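Long-time lurker, finally posting.

We've been working with NYN domain-containing protein (Noccaea caerulescens) and I want a structural starting point before designing mutants. I don't trust myself to interpret raw outputs, so I'm hoping someone here can both generate the structure tokens and explain anything notable. Sequence follows.
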Amino acid sequence: MFCASRLSMEEIRETFADAETVVYWDVEDFPVTDAVTFNENIRTALGNVGYRGNVSIRAYYGGDNKPSRSDEIAGITFVSRASKRGRMHSMLLDMHLLALDNLSCAPTNLMAITKDLTWDEDEEETQFATRLMLLNSECYNVLLVVDDDLRGRLTKMPHSLKYTAWCWEDISVYRPSYPTRPIHHSIVESFRRQPPPKMYMYEEEDPCHRCGK
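Top reply, 14 upvotes:
Generated this for you. Predicted structure of NYN domain-containing protein:
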């Protein structure tokens, strides 16, 4: 057992390079005109940073936005949930079931493409960010896709969540002459909210009960 949140970004890239990536995508929050092309964009973006493992995509859509026949052929699993709350709960349930099935604690990449996942924005009180933190403290590498309001989104992420993020505009449109890259780690860190202050100057972080680091 190890904790992805305790690894450096270099260690994460190395540890999770060949791991499976499971994508949880809210189609209502981030719609596309062509799911087949989007499927290819996701795989290309992951490959550009060295993630070479299998990729599976679960897309959660509202009742009126049914996927077309070509979308279904793209190899994406579509889940119908009319409300935002229903889609977020379905994502969390699917993540939970994935973790239950992963008895060997095999390294796994989880990509969340959804809005309102932070504590500040979670009007449905789904505790989405909390669940990502718990998974991140185990064998799961968290990948996020955010909209263009980088400061507004990244500053609201939990300070202990270690993640890689892409801009939606970059990952949703295929640009042959412009390889899709994640937001630079230095930018992510510059927006990271500060941890709660320690009560005592000599207080140190306790070793993880899972990995011992």
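Before you design anything, note these points.
Strands lie at 20-26, 55-61, 77-80, 108-113, 140-146, 163-167.
The domain at 4-192 is CATH 3.40.50 (Rossmann fold).
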